[in-house]
Write a structure and sequence with these properties.
The protein is 64% helix and 3% strand. By secondary structure, it is mainly α. It has one domain. It has a two-stranded antiparallel sheet with strand order 1-2. A hairpin with a 2-residue loop joins strand 1 and strand 2. Helix 2 crosses helix 6 and helix 3 packs antiparallel against helix 6. The N terminus is likely disordered.
Length: 249
């Protein structure tokens, strides 16, 4: 992202930080091209692997700080899956835990100056959301067969309203991956863009103290957003999985 003074004014481009660029130069990006997005996704995966290898290496009765962190993350997501999706949902715990860790680490690594946020890219969040959506449909049909379609038939409503409600439920169901992906990408993009705007205004001497104070406040908010968005994406995955496992509840 660039800021420059032009005729006494300040020009800045808050959205340039989200451009996907090849790591080794050039203008063409193919599916195999290493980019800044793939680099930071790879760093997120490596960070997760490093944390868990270090945290579970000793497995002491009195845990170290790293082991305590790993156990806290594990127990938190395990309890979430059990409470929301039920005992049947625990068989999907490794998948859900992996989703949470990837989004959590990608969000927090993106707060490092000069880093890149993979979860600001709709292509990344859409892939994650579509994977959840297809998993839910597959599990629902395999476990329940045709009775999975009962998810769209509101038996508690009057008979005359049921066809209308079925259409609404069907549309709502297929909109899930859109809202699931856009919510995460939109929240991360908006926060980083606002931080860049405050950083640009910090170059102006008169309002620099206000801009720096605002940037510190926004950064603190983004720390919360990074964790909350990982939590929201994960708990919605559990809710959708519950619908697949128990469509009549």
């Amino acid at each position: 992202m660039e800021e420059e003074a032009t005729d006494g004014g300040l020009v800045f481009y808050p959205m340039d930080q989200f451009l996907v660029e090849p790591l080794f130069g050039g203008d063409t990006i193919n599916w195999w091209t290493p980019t800044n997005a793939t680099l930071w996704m790879f760093i997120a995966v490596l960070s997760i692997a490093a944390l868990f290898m270090l945290g579970t290496r000793g497995r002491a009765v009195i845990p170290t700080r790293t082991q305590s962190m790993v156990e806290l993350l594990y127990g938190f997501i395990y309890k979430m899956v059990e409470d929301v999706a039920g005992k049947d949902g625990l068989k999907f715990f490794p998948y859900i835990f992996t989703l949470f860790l990837f989004i959590f680490f990608a969000n927090f690594l993106a707060l490092i100056p000069a880093s890149f946020s993979p979860t600001s890219q709709i292509a990344v969040t859409a892939f994650l959301a579509l994977a959840v959506f297809l998993t839910v449909i597959t599990v629902g049909l395999v476990k329940n067969g045709a009775s999975f379609l009962g998810l769209f038939w509101v038996t508690s409503a009057p008979l005359a309203l049921r066809p209308v409600l079925a259409i609404i439920e069907l549309i709502s169901f297929f909109v899930r991956p859109v809202s699931h992906s856009v919510r995460l990408a939109g929240a991360i993009t908006a926060g980083h863009a606002v931080m860049k705007v405050f950083a640009a205004f910090a170059a102006a001497a008169l309002i620099a103290p206000i801009a720096i104070g605002g940037m510190v406040a926004i950064y603190a908010l983004e720390v919360l957003v990074a964790a909350i968005q990982a939590y929201v994406f994960t708990i919605l995955t559990c809710v959708y999985l519950k619908d697949a496992l128990h469509p009549h509840h």
